[in-house]
Amino acid sequence: MATLYKRGDAYYLNWRKDGTQLRRSLGKIDRREAEAIRAEKEAELAGLILPRSGRTVAVILQDYLDWSKQARPDSFKGTNAALRPLIASFGGYPAEELDAALVERWAAQSANAAATVVKSLKMARAAYRRAQRLRLVADSPFARVELPKVVTSRAPPYFTRKELDDLFKAERGAIWQFMANTGLRRSEMAKATREDVRDGKLFVESLPTGRTKSGKWRWVPLNKEAKDALKRLGPDRLVDCHKDTLNDWFTEDKGTKVKRGTPHWLRHSFCTYLAQAGVSLHDIKELAGHSSITMTEKYSHHAPGAGQAAIGKLNLTGVSSKKAQART
Q: Where is the domain boundary, 144, 171, 192?
């Protein structure tokens, strides 16, 4: 027999199997959803339906990694890094019987930053959605896990013009100059070829050999600086290396003159200086290939005169004297 009980905002499912009392957290769901899960477990215990898949968490997450390595090679390194901690902690648990409360405790006690933990949990949700679509599992315990709140919020960092000038003069300066003037990501730079340059534009396309982050293609007009850099890049592939090699080259080229930043700061610099020049957020979104305008809004404070009109209306002079006059 399967029973429900509620503690706080969360429901729990209890049942006995082979003489052992078992419990599973259902998370913060409503009574109807909890009752549906209880009824399913009751039917399973009565032999009316087949039990759950018998697969483990590790099987589901590793299957997603195997697929990701083939389907999304550009982002596989990050996907692997996100899922490995979950496989290490919960890999041996039954795929559909993992206690959501146990995962929430792991998230709360993790030494990693909240944003890193959230990325791991979101990636696990994606892995389970794929498993559900393929009918490998019927239920996802990660869907019931409450994500930690990410309280850190910072403006996107970018290079000063002096720092960019020093980078452009480095040994591989043509690469950094091209990326800063086109807004390319590392993965996009690593797969760019001469054939992608047509009619004075760079076409950034999502292909089986290398997809864009949003999965959509875009084009970026080449300005004078980008065209000058292009002359010094490769005859076929613009850079003949893996995207991670760009990190190593960038560290070498920074030397002692540029003491901060990563290749991705070049993309931030692209968006930042466009915003400072008065380019609309919509145009920046299209040029950068952001999936939503929300991403682009992070640069809105760089727009000329941003907030100045509002602050210009603020006048606190004489407030205290006016209050004193009103009391007399």
A: 144
